[in-house]
Request: fold
Amino acid sequence: MKKNLKIATILIVILISSFFLWRFLNQYLYKTKATQETVTLNFTQSLLEFKQNETKTIPFTLTTSNNTKISAVDLYFKFNLQNQDLVEYQSFSTTPNNYFDKVIKQEIINSSSYGGSKILRLVLVSKKENSQLLNSLVFNLNFRAKKRAGSTSISLHASIGNIQNQVVGPIAGYVFDLRTNNDATNITVNNQGYCTAVGDCGQNTSCQNNSCVCNSGFYNCDGNWENGCESNQTCPSQTNTPTPTPTNQPGSVSLNLKLKFQGVMREPANTNQRTMRVKIKVGGGNLSSPVSVEGNFTLTGQKNSETDALIWQGSVNLPSQITAGQHYYLLIKGPKHIQKKICENNPSETTGGNYRCRSGNQVSLSSGQNNLDFSKIYFLGGDLPINSAQDGVVDSLDTSFIRNNLGKTDPNVVAIADLNLDGRVDTQDWSMVIYALSIKTDEE
Reply:
């Protein structure tokens, strides 16, 4: 009798222990699909329009329920549906940057099983501590339009045939129930802006990097100079009134500037790279709005020190609105560079690129030539003229372009992304654009 009681007691203890162990495992380590939290995917833009050969970012978000953290993803995106080969995948990034420590897969699958579509697969893992994991992420998919015009879309569904998308939680065996609200971005590729020869473009334009680029400007009906192609406007006739004199004609004030651009440590082998076109805006003083000029700047072979970058020098005549004796500020922008605002005749900085205009409009200009030395501050590179256009900041489009063209010496690529002018796109250019990301973006 006592022996049977002892056995029964042991069995009860085992059953109770097994119950609590099962409860612990299910509550803290493993969750089935039916009982776990959800993660919702949203494409944040419903429609994107590309010009041919243009690169754009397609963003989407992943957000979990109950603040549960994301540690890995295995996602499949369909694009180029019904054999419309309109766009091609370039790269991805996340916000925050580099959230995933390891890229397991980043591949394009040519799938004949799903209407001739292509499939982008991303398998990404974050090895961060749980305290560093997040419950909401922004993904940026960079796509480039090809030479065809038409419509397509990029989409992600909970499943594609026998393919299962998965988002993984912070512990082993934890897979979210994936939901999609806005599960696609529709894409239109038009035929504007693409050219193959000078003849493809209109009057006063030329074909550069497969885009029609304006070669000159025009005076509008008010007599003001505007950058761009021919205006094609008809100004109203004026009886007994002479043609207005353009107000942006050169005046009596000119600038002779010394500039220093990040990373150009030695003279380039290509003589065409020894001259740089620089945009200059003048604001403040008696002006109601800034006025703009452009000028060619040439390498001088001079440095402030052996470890410093080379100095460029150039001169521009300012429009007649600029009055001697006034105090102004200048906005300087190189062809692949971040615009910088200058408020001193001879500014300096302790760390490259950190100069900031904090003293108001203090550039004093006199009649005639004004010699201004800006070579003690750096003009940082990184705002690349991709498709002959700049957006004023260093962002994922710029970094992706450099990363995707590392090692290339193609002249068209070098013209866009070779920041240190060594004739190739390399890790030095990559380092420069990453450094620029840590500095405040375009000023005004």
Observations:
- Confidence is low (pLDDT under 50) at residues 24-35, 237-248.
- The helical segments are 2-29, 396-404, 411-417, 427-437.
- The chain has three domains: 38-190, 195-232, 246-373.
- The chain has four helices and 26 strands.
